[in-house]
Amino acid sequence: MAPQQANRRGLLIILSSPSGAGKSTLAKRLRAWDSDIRFSVSATTRAPRPGEVNGQDYHFVSVEAFKHDVSNGDMLEHAHVFGNFYGSPKGPVQDAINAGQDVLFDIDWQGAQQITNSDLGKHTLSIFLLPPSITELRRRLEGRGQDDADTIGRRMEKSWDEISHWGSYDHVLINEDLDETEENLKTIIKATRLRRIQQPALIEHARNLQQEFEELQ
Ligand code: ADP
Ligand code: 5GP
Q: Domains plus CATH for the chain?
């Protein structure tokens, strides 16, 4: 096996954007592309939307349970978004990356910043999705047909707050053409998997090369 495929360390892939720019759609496509990519199922205190499955879309928890997990140190990051608490449970992420699997996070800028500044920051790839225009962002939120007018209004009001943090991400993609954005995301992920720090097996490979080199002298 080529060394870059052996004993790989998993990446923490963070996708952020204003609501409606395309995170969930692209996350689904990435997981269809590589079924080994794990999705970090966040805990949230918000109520489930129709069709959302507990344990799959989110872990829907009470405020008390959420605060308990935070004070126990069980959350990799957490934030207050749209009046509710959201957080990424730490355990499943550590297990996945130690097993060489990437973990995909659909989280806001506050969570992205906390993970990037954590011990796992060096294994993090952060990507921000921008909409082609604010008008198109609204069109997508309306077209998704998931939220009532009030909720869409609130999401639109918050959109600039999220967009204003685009500058602190490793990569920024304008999600105009969905297929093109998907291809660009795959390219970025493939390249980042090849970073030296993601390939602990390189040390052994280099040692073997050195040994072989010396034997041939
Ligand atoms: P988010 O998860 O960021 O809130 P979604 O993935 O739910 O956003 O996307 C919002 C809506 O926009 C969905 O109906 C989705 O099908 C649509 N959408 C996503 N990307 C594009 C794109 N590049 N062009 C047109 N529509 C898109
Ligand atoms: P929604 O309620 O629409 O599912 O999510 C609202 C916002 O919360 C989105 O911007 C989403 O990325 C963010 N979010 C979801 N889960 C988490 C999480 O675990 N941590 C943080 N910081 N943000 C999250």
A: 12-40+101-215 (3.40.50.300)
